[in-house]
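Quick one: structure for this chain?
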Amino acid sequence: MTGLWLQVVEPAPVNHPTIGSGFWAINIDSVLSSLLAVIVTIAVGLYVARRLQTRKPGILQLALELAYTYVRDDLFKGLAAEGDEEVAKRASFVMPLALTIGFYILIANYLDFLPLHGLIHPANSDLNQTLAMALVVFVTVQWYTFREQGLWGYLYRWTKPFEMPLLARIVFIPLNILEDLIKPVTLSMRLFGNILAAVIVIWLITTLVASIPYVGPFFLAPLALIIWKGFDVFFIGALQAFIFMLLTIIYFGQAREGIHERHRREHAGQPDLVGGAEHS
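Got it. Here's what it folds into:
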């Protein structure tokens, strides 16, 4: 019974086999799990690309097309309303970036469905993984903001709320800078915390249920594992992938903050150092 109990109960998810120490420590299980998720993501993408059909698309193609349509409409609806087709073209790289990150996170979360133990686990239960993705989004957003607005526009967006006089907005500058810097932290911690919590809850449930004599390790623990993973891994894993993808799109949308306000002030001949009253 002891051997079967050890197979039912998943290993504690808080310890990682590592190479090196300190800052240079590498979590072997996280690297292998991430690599597996990358391979599966690329394989699914190539599979769908080679089997594209216009008359009778498959379920996987329909799901990916639905995600693509959502990202496209959400990303470009503001630009389309402005009638700025050139800006929409320059922002077209955001769509594949957001979709790829979202789909990769989904695959990485769904690794928990696999009956693999030891060196394979949900890749996003390691903060190193989620922080790396959040930093990629953050750096890319900063680059895109600077490219779209230039140095003055990049600095100007930290003076919001724009409807107030500049002298009154100075107090908000440190808060706006802090808001920018904290985005990769919250983006990574949200994903990491939810996935790690799910893994820990699964471990606790199987550990407690499997300790019930006779029926625990043979029946109740596998049943509890299936039910909980069906809800937590399937639903929460997909939800967290969607949230990360959606926030990526929102951050790129915020990169153009202040552009229209500056243009309005320039056309109205209103110096920004004077006041914030709107001119009709």
